[in-house]
Every structure is written in C-alpha cells, then in structure tokens.
Amino acid sequence: MTPDPRRDEAEFLASYDPRDYDPVAVTVDVVALTIRDGALHVLLVRRGFAPYAGMWALPGGFVQAGGPLRGADAEDLPDAAVRELAEETGLSAKGGALGRVHLEQLGTYGSPGRDPRMRVISVAHLAFAPELPDPQAGGDAADAAWVPVDALGLTDSGEQRPGTTRRLAFDHARILADGLERARGKLEYTPLATAFCGGEFTIPELRSVYEAVWGEELHAGNFHRKVLSVPGFVESTGATSDRGGRRGGPRPRLYRAGDARLLHPALLRPSREEEIR
Amino acid sequence: MTPDPRRDEAEFLASYDPRDYDPVAVTVDVVALTIRDGALHVLLVRRGFAPYAGMWALPGGFVQAGGPLRGADAEDLPDAAVRELAEETGLSAKGGALGRVHLEQLGTYGSPGRDPRMRVISVAHLAFAPELPDPQAGGDAADAAWVPVDALGLTDSGEQRPGTTRRLAFDHARILADGLERARGKLEYTPLATAFCGGEFTIPELRSVYEAVWGEELHAGNFHRKVLSVPGFVESTGATSDRGGRRGGPRPRLYRAGDARLLHPALLRPSREEEIR
DNA sequence: TTATGTTCTTCTCATATCGAGATGAACTCA
DNA sequence: TGAGTTCATCTCGATATGAGAAGAACATAA
To answer: Which pLDDT band holds residue A10 (cuts at 50, 70, 90)?
Structure first.
C-alpha cells in the first residue's frame, strides 16, 4: 500500500497539497569500489561546508523528484546513482569509462537524526569499477579521490577506529562497511570480480582482485583450477599476455568474462569458517 | 553526501524551506511470508479506494517523518515496518505473536510513475513469520488475508500471468517476486527456515518449510543428515513429538533453533544448477 | 651471458561433501 | 490384524576442496 487510499484519484489530485506533509528528502549515495595497485579503493569526496565540513563522504545527492504533478524531470534511482557517479568522477556515464561499471542497490538508510538538518532517506548503491582515472573535484565537493579502504580503519560494526585521520561524515562508515561486506559476499557466488578487471585479464589478475577484496591470500593452483572449472566464469581469448609477472614467471593467458550470472559451485572464502557464529 | 552543503548549518536551518523542493513521499511495504498447510502464504490487504481499488496490495504505509525540525515523532524504517505489520494483522508488536518474526530490509522501489498520484519511494521489507492467526481488516484495508503465493501466478520477471484473479496493485508483483527470490536464497545459507517454525519443531517439519519455499521435494534422508551435520543449525530438546506423521511413521524428535547465524556448508537447492545462466 | 629467484600452470593425494538408494523400526489408518 | 507411510540411519559412487609438489617460462641482477 502507498498513500492515503480513502479518496478516489480525481479527488485526491484536486485536494492534495504536498505541503501538508512533513518534509522528507531522498538522496542516493554510492559506494564505488575499484582496485588500484593491488589494494581496494573507494571513491570519496571531501566536504567543503557544514555539516561535517572537512570530512570525507560518499558521493551522492538528491534524487530529482519530478513526478506526474511537476513535469517529466523525474529520475529513477539507478539513474540518479549513475549521474552522481559521473558528476563526481568527471567521467561520461554512457559508453564512456563508466560503461562497464556494475551498479546495484545496497540498502536504504533512514534513521532519524542521521542528517542534522532534516529527515533524509538515503538509498545507497554499490558500484564495481575497473581502474579509473583520478576524479576531478567537481560539483559540490572540495576534493575527490580514490582512497584505500584500509586507510579508513573500519570495524565490522560500521565504525572507524580511534586515531583514523580520514573521518567519514554522517553514517557513511556504516554504509561503507555494509558495502564492503556485500562485495565480499558477491565475489563468492557471482562472477562480478571480472567487473574490476578490464575487458581482458589473466587468472592471476583475477586472483589479485579476490585477494584485495577478501584481504587474504589464496592458493594460486587451486584458484586457477576453480576458475576454469566453473562453467561460464571466464572464457579464453586464445591470446597470451605480452609480459610475464612483475618479478618473473611465464606469460599468463588472457581471458574475458563468461556468460554465467552465478558461480556454481560457489567460490567460498577460506576465512568464512571462523566467522560463522 | 547528502543535502546542499553550500551553507553552514545555522544558515541552512534559518533559510531552509521544505516547500521549495519537489515533494517525495516515503513509505514502507512489507512482504510477510508464512507457511500454512504446507504452502507458502503472503499477507495481503485489499484496497477499498482508488487507485487500484479492489486489487490486492502488500501491507504498508507512510513513514512518520518528524525529524529535528518537527518534533520527536520520527520513526526508523524497521519500526515503521513492524508498526504496519502490527496494524494490518491486529497482532501486538512486542512480546506478542510478532515477537519471533524475522524482519529485514528487502529493497527500495522508486521508479517515477509507480504511484499515479505522486513520487513515492517505497522501502520494502521482508518478514518470516511462524503460523499466525487470520488478520483483521483494520486501518485502511477493505480486507486482509494470508494468500497462497501460488494463487498469484507470479512469473520470474515480476509480473502476474494473464487470467490470475487476484491482481496486485502498483509494482507489488515485482516486489513480491523479489521477496520470494530473497527468501529462497536466504534459506540456503542462513538458518532462517526456523523462523517459520514455532519454538520447537521436528526435522520433517523443517524440511516441509524448505519444500514450500523452494517449491520442490527434498530427499528426506539427505536433508536429515545435512541439518544435523551443520554446526549450530538446530539443537536437540531431548523430547519427542507426541504423534507420528500424518499417515503413519515413528514419532520424530523435537529440536529448536541453534545459535548459528550462517549455515556452513550451505544447504543449496537442487534446482539451482539449471538456473545459472 | 649466466645465475637466481619468481610465477604460471598442471598434477597428485587425502579429505569432505553430496546425490541416490536401501533398510529396519515405529506408527496410523482401514 | 494387515497394509502402507514415515523417521532415522547407513552405504556407495561421484564430485569438490585444501595442501603440497613440480616443470617450464620469464625477469632481474651479477
């Protein structure tokens, strides 16, 4: 059910005044993740004004409400997330570098008091991107950067450890922690790790994605066997990388993402066993 | 990031007028699932007024915005979901029959035009309940009932098959389909199937929950072995059911939910193999 | 050029898990 | 009392996983 059903529609439209209601703002925030230098990074912007001036925050902003009463400038939630991401990174949304970005809804955060100014409901999204250029501080942000996730001192409970220099505004530490946990889980049973790679990648590169997101080293041989044995995870390009590993070794073969949408059997992280309870 | 940061807070509070913004309404909807007579049921209410008068809908309603500007009647999203559930079922929220209900956020639906009256952002929740009494049509609803999910003719794409008598309002077929898929997945890797049972249950009863949600029969012997081998899934009460099966058989033993929060290894549904691509 | 160490890729082997079927005892219902 | 059902456990083959090993290809430094 949605708004007051005790009027028929014509009557509703005639008598309805949005100013009768308590105001609620709806925003989208984006947890955009990428891999740089083998480490997991998140896109953050630095706030130039109060509240939380000088602190870092997830990119985001208002959803354009529009709607049948106010014209056709209404915007769907995923579109708003892509727009915010494009504005903050300075990258073109369609066809450009953001074309191969995976985007999904993460969750909605609406506790009273999470924004000191008014009631704000934020629909958080999660994005997996291949390596992108440094963002340009456009729009509202004083600064924007890819920040190593490890540098934020996040705890499982969604807070930042005391002494962490880069503080996160609002409840964005909680949102980011939820996004990281979602990402870790998604890598287990979907082939989305390939979204962190370019169009072509090697199995060792794919393994480094898993290691960066999960924060633990994997057995190279078993990982290799697993990736090739799951149907539709990757498909061979027939080509070979033009260089060996950083410090030696043969040239690895090149693959691209397969057509599977789920990994079966899943690729479970080793540490999971201890976290069960 | 959230609202306009180009003012400091005091200035913002003085100059801010919510009437400057396009109006957005935020609602919560609840996909409440239970098992009745071995079949999966969902709680629905029948709409008495336009739009979608006479059609069925998920229980739900406005979030009480409140907030620092308007007093302390602000309401968190899960609280709003519990309140709507209590209002529609006529059951007491705390301590009562709703006490053991599992509730989690499902997703947020905000496409322009999903409500013909205005822009409505709906935060959908998913609830797993043990068998509850029939709801009383209270509040805004003309009627309320537990409806067998199979009777709604839902397709994977979130629509209702032509010819289905009970039509769902708004995009609630889509939301319900998403909720069902979430429920099916949750049963694989969490012990939440126990939330559909009472405090004590037998392993055959637990199996019938899986069969109702997944819509397929399971191998009784393997299911039994699996449930007992996963640490923390169930724990024995030492007691035995006072009656055998419906049509014979020995008296099954009684168990209660264990302390595990994740099933490891997971209990994967057999049909999954075909759906992968 | 040579030597050294690294990395990719494939194997082996022991262990764990799963699907399918079978069995005996306990129970309901006709 | 007899027939059929169900609970609970077991067996067996197939599959998946973790750990280690090994050869070949490569980068780098001497």
So the answer is: very low
Q: Per the confidence metrics, is the pTM higher than 0.85?
A: yes
Boundary residue ending a domain (A186, A220, A254) = A186
Show the tokens assigned to A177. 């922690």
* Residues belonging to chain A: 277
* pLDDT tens-digit series, residues A24-65: 899 999 999 999 999 999 999 999 888 999 999 999 999 988
Smallest CA-to-CA distance from A124 within A109, A139, A103 is with A109
Angle between helices A172-189 and A203-214 (to 10 degrees): 140
Q: Are residues B201 and B257 in the same domain?
A: yes
Q: Is A9 a member of any domain?
A: no
Q: What are phi and psi of B150, to 5 degrees?
A: -60, -25
CB A130 within 8 A of CB A141: no
Name the pLDDT band for B49 (thresholds 50, 70, 90): confident
Q: Which residues touch strand D (CB under 7 A)?
A: A 219, 221-222, 225-226, 229, 243-251, 265-268, 270; B 202-204, 220-222, 224-225, 228, 240, 244-253
The reply to whether A36 and A152 lie within a common domain is: yes
DSSP for B101-146? -EEEEEEEE--TTSSSSS-EEEEEEEEE----PPPP--TT-SEEEE
Beta bridge partners of A257: A234
Mean pLDDT of B69-84: 82
Cβ of B277 within 8 Å of Cβ of A232? The answer is: yes
**A160 and A208 fall within a common domain:** no
Which pLDDT tens digit goes with each residue over B236-251? Answer: 999 999 987 788 899 9
The Cα–Cα gap between A38 and A58 comes to: 22
CA distance A8 to A12: 6
Q: Please tell me the distance from the alpha carbon of residue A209 to that of residue B129, in angstroms, as a whole number.
A: 39
Task: Determine how β-strand A120-128 pairs with β-strand A25-36.
Answer: parallel
A chain contacts of residue B58, beta-carbon cutoff 8 Å: 1
Q: What is the pLDDT of residues B150-193, one digit of tens each?
A: 999 999 899 999 999 999 999 999 999 999 999 999 999 999 99
pLDDT range class, residue A6, cuts 50, 70, 90: very low
The per-residue pLDDT for B172 is 98
Question: What CATH number is given to the structural domain containing A129?
Answer: 3.90.79.10
Q: Are residues A102 and A164 in the same domain?
A: yes
- Inter-residue contact B152 to B164 (CB < 8 Å): yes
Amino acid in position B189: Y
A39 in Cβ contact with A148 (< 8 Å): yes
Report yes or no: A48 at the B interface, CB cutoff 8 Å.
yes
Which residue of B2, B104, B114, B120 to mutate against A (max A Cβ within 10 Å)? B2
Mean of the per-residue pLDDT values of chain A: 88
In this structure, the answer to whether residues A39 and A134 fall within a common structural domain is yes
Q: When comparing pLDDT for A142 and B93, which is higher?
A: A142
- Please report, for the domain that includes residue B266, its CATH number: 1.10.10.10
β-bridge partners, A145: A44
Q: Is the pLDDT of residue A164 over 90?
A: yes
Do residues A160 and A36 both lie within one domain? yes
